[in-house]
């Protein structure tokens, strides 16, 4: 196990109706004016907007608002929001939505106090020194952005999708009400679930040894997600299933499962390039890329893959032919993704195969990706070809 420092400063407020505490949470942090940031309207359709506004008004918190954060959120809206915050002297950003809204809010938070272009943090390795505080009300269990130190933004010019990592952008609080996810279209529930699984698997496939505790925590969290996703799809109003999945989304990506180990993340980097160009749902892209990545790298550590498919997916290991166990496991996982209504090929994802080289090149804009097996752009191309 490696040495580590672990700190997860986000206050979690979990349960039914907790969005009604939003005003209190913000007031406790001494904010004087809030930017209420959201997406394309689902929060109004589900009545959440009205409840949040009521809570802000009851706590006497002035706010301005900006909707329009789209899936694979765009830099141009971040710029617009930064201008608005400066004009209106906003000192707290409230994100109400899924990962895209929260990521957009985090980018705004580092952009407001910065003299240069906020894209510098995503593209040039400039390290942010300050940020406005962010609060999140989560409506989609998926990315873990509600507690993560990451923001992923797409620059329209050149369709570049890059991430910023900084502890400064971990939200101050996250309101997690599983009821808010009952209105999700099945495709988004499933894509969100695959994203949670991918965050767990990115961490599981590591070269770090002697990490039994985190191995088992990851295996257990995966089993919970695998069990409850089909239930949530069959019974969208099942609170307990939604609650298990929502808490798993946070646990999977708040850093606790990184402690003492180094994760991989090549599949994410490859998927981000698909999302940047074709605007696919992130989790759906991962359902295609992750099995292909596994097919490409499993020989690097066959025992780890056998253990994974045995402990998480219940496969009996074939001791005479461990490779066969791995290949069987990958196909069981693909069948599971299909059963959720997820694609497992680029064609099923609606992505043509004429820009694979470009996507593979872009994965390496900052050097090879992946810690378990370093993936250069030629290897990324092989993986993308395995997605067919
Ligand atoms: O735009 P609105 O109206 O909000 O509708 C959204 C959107 O169309 C809708 N939706 C959300 N909650 C709903 C709802 N519809 C009905 N009822 C609800 N309760 O769902 C659609 C997708 O939302 P989005 O926020 O895009 O999805 P997700 O949460 O999967 O976020 C994906 C983005 O997060 C990034 C991804 O790359 C992608 O850009 N990620 C961020 C991470 C992080 N910051 O730590 C880590 C992840 O690995 C990921 O890369
Ligand atoms: Zn993800």
UniProtKB/TrEMBL annotation:
Gene Ontology terms: cellular component: cytosol
Domain Alcohol dehydrogenase iron-type/glycerol dehydrogenase GldA: 9-178
Claim: Mitochondrion is one of the keywords in the record: no
Domain Fe-containing alcohol dehydrogenase-like C-terminal, chain residue ranges per copy: 189-385
CDD domains given in the database record: BDH
Keywords for this protein: Oxidoreductase
Cross-referenced InterPro entries: ADH_Fe/GldA (IPR001670), ADH_Fe_C (IPR056798), ADH_Fe_CS (IPR018211), BDH-like (IPR044731)
Superkingdom classification of source: Bacteria
Database matches in Gene3D superfamilies: 3.40.50.1970, Dehydroquinate synthase-like - alpha domain (1.20.1090.10)
A Pfam cross-reference name: ADH_Fe_C
One GO MF term: methylglyoxal reductase (NADPH) (acetol producing) activity
Protein name as annotated: Uncharacterized protein
């Amino acid at each position: 196990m490696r040495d580590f420092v672990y700190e997860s400063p986000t206050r979690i407020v979990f349960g039914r109706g907790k969005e009604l505490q939003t005003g209190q949470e913000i007031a406790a942090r001494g904010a004087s004016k809030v930017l209420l940031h959201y997406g394309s309207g689902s929060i109004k359709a589900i009545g959440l907007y009205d409840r949040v506004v009521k809570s802000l008004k009851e706590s006497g918190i002035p706010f301005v608002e900006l909707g329009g954060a789209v899936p694979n959120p765009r830099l141009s809206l971040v710029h617009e929001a930064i201008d608005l915050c400066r004009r209106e002297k906003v000192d707290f950003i409230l994100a109400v939505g899924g990962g895209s809204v929260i990521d957009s809010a985090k980018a705004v938070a580092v952009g407001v106090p910065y003299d240069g272009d906020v894209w510098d943090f995503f593209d040039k390795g400039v390290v942010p020194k300050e940020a406005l505080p962010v609060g999140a009300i989560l409506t989609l269990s998926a990315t873990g952005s509600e507690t993560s130190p990451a923001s992923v933004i797409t620059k329209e010019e050149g369709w570049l999708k890059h991430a910023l990592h900084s502890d400064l952008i971990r939200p101050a609080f996250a309101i997690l009400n599983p009821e808010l996810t009952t209105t999700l279209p099945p495709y988004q529930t499933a894509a969100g679930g695959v994203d949670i699984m991918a965050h767990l698997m990115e961490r599981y496939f590591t070269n770090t040894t002697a990490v039994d505790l985190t191995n088992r925590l990851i295996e257990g969290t995966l089993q919970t997600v695998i069990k409850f996703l089909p239930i949530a799809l069959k019974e969208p109003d099942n609170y307990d299933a939604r609650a298990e999945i929502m808490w798993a989304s946070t646990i999977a990506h708040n850093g606790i499962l990184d402690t003492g180990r180094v994760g991989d993340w090549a599949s994410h980097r490859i998927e981000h390039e698909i999302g940047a160009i074709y605007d696919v749902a992130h989790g759906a892209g991962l359902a295609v890329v992750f099995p292909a990545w596994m097919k490409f790298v499993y020989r690097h550590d066959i025992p780890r893959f056998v253990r994974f498919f045995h402990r998480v997916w219940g496969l009996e290991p074939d001791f005479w032919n461990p490779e066969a166990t791995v290949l069987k496991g990958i196909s069981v996982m693909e069948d599971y993704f299909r059963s959720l209504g997820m694609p497992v090929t680029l064609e099923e994802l609606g992505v043509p195969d004429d820009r694979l080289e470009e996507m593979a090149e872009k994965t390496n804009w900052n050097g090879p990706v992946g810690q378990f097996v370093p993936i250069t752009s030629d290897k990324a191309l092989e993986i993308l070809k395995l997605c067919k």
